Amino acid sequence: MDRFIATLAHELRNPLAPVRTGVQILLQSPSAEIASRTLAMMERQLGHMVHMIDDLLDVSRITGDRLSLRREAVELQKLIAQAVEGIDPQVRARGQELVLELPEEPVLADVDPTRMSQVITNLLQNAAKFSATGDSIRLSMSVEAGVADIRIADSGIGLAPESLDRIFELFYQVGGTHEQIASGLGIGLSLSRRLVELHGGKLTAHSEGVGRGATFVVRIPCSAGAEAPAPVEPSRLELPWRLRRVMVVDDKQVAADAMGTPLRMRGHTAHVAYDGPSALAVAGEHELDVVLLDARH
Predict the structure, then answer these.
(1) What is the pTM of this model?
(2) CA distances to 131, 228, 230, 239, 285 from 233, in Å
């Protein structure tokens, strides 16, 4: 626990330092070009922090048996394509190549698309992180006896025999360069295995040894005879553009005010409430189009 707390503090401090520097730069009224570069850097660092904290929250939900899956019939090829689209910039930045080998016939599975995409993304990120510049990462899928095998293979640092199962332990980190070891909390693989198991599947690791790459295999039951759901008509999801009367409700005052400000900047009328009784009072006094409500327990 001591080591984990120290690692967590280090990992959170890493992106916070450039964000704090970025704030100081912006306060000095820099040129438009410098401000744009600074904001882009701050957004990337905040993205790292959000990803890390989301993983920690997911681990907490699974450990406390509070994570529920929203299953639907999903075409695995499309789900994989979405995950690849998200990881592609990281792979390209490292000069690596991502090779896909997927069946032409649609493969359907009854899964939570968000969670299964999270698993594939985590495995691809690991493959990129522990592979050298210019290496290839291969993602393939095969189907046999009603089970889909999704394989992600790299030619990176590989795994010692004693690490093949330990890497799925919470907070366990394999050897590598200092940069590789220091760029995570050892959560992703443990979280991915638990998510796959919640789907009735299995996640395993294979390697011929240190320096000889690694392959991760996700085994997921297919949906026999299932049909992918028809896409929802966009008109059911989109409201025609016009200025709205909005109320933001959040017991965290800073968060509520932060949400109200950009709404007003876009010309909307934004009311802010910090608790239930205040929200009911605002709703009684004003005609509203939209309510943004923090409904967390």
Answers:
(1) 0.68
(2) 42, 15, 9, 12, 35
Least confident interval from 17-21, 185-189, 250-254, 282-286: 185-189
Report the C-alpha gap between 152 and 83 in whole angstroms. 12
pLDDT of residue 175 exceeding 70: no
Note the pLDDT tens digit of each residue in 62-96.
878 888 889 999 999 999 998 898 888 888 888 99
Contact between 130 and 94 under an 8 Å Cβ cutoff? The reply is: no
Distances (CA, A) of 8 to 1, 4, 12, 49: 10, 6, 6, 11
Task: Please report where in the chains the tokens 């005010």 appear, as a residue.
Answer: 257
Q: Is 205 in contact with 174 (CB distance < 8 Å)?
A: no
Query: pLDDT-based confidence at 176, cuts 50/70/90?
Result: low
Rounded-to-integer distance, Cα 160 and Cα 166, Å: 10
Nearest to 124 by CA among 148, 151, 106, 146: 151
CB of 43 closer than 8 Å to CB of 18 = no
Q: What is the average pLDDT value for the chain, to the nearest integer?
A: 85
Model confidence over 35-54: pLDDT tens digits? 998 998 888 888 878 877 88
